[in-house]
Design brief:
Order of helices and strands: HHEHHEEH
CATH topology: Arc Repressor Mutant, subunit A
Strand content: 15-25%
Helix content: 55-70%
Structural class: alpha+beta
CATH architecture: Orthogonal Bundle
Radius of gyration: 16 Å
Strand order of the largest sheet: 1-3-2
Number of domains: 1
Length: 104
């Protein structure tokens, strides 16, 4: 049984989901990405990417800007400062867990 202070209980549930982790990771290494670029890079469907991006946007982890290029809609995503800090914290947490398991 895990203790209340167990690191496994402290996961950021927003980022821990694999598609959302993939989105924030892709945005961490790119200044910004369009909806179509993210969709292609992560091999996600329109609906799947939209749902996960909305959750990240609602959490303040990514910014979404919608515009038109000519008559075509364009959606750009960018990682926020809050999102970058959350990702860095999540990665540090995972590294700590891995280290604990290796040293057990």
């Amino acid at each position: 049984m895990l203790a209340a202070s167990d690191p496994a209980k402290q996961f950021d549930g927003i980022i821990h989901e694999r598609n959302r982790l993939a989105i924030v990771s892709a945005l961490a290494v790119n200044n910004a990405m369009t909806f179509n670029d993210l969709k292609a890079a992560l091999n996600l469907s329109d609906g799947n990417l939209s749902a996960h991006a909305r959750k990240l946007e609602d959490s303040g982890y990514i910014d979404c800007k919608k515009a038109f290029e000519g008559r075509m809609p364009r959606t750009d995503y960018k990682l926020t400062v809050k999102g970058r800090k959350a990702l860095e914290s999540y990665l540090a947490h995972m590294e700590s867990l891995i280290s604990s398991v290796k040293n057990a």
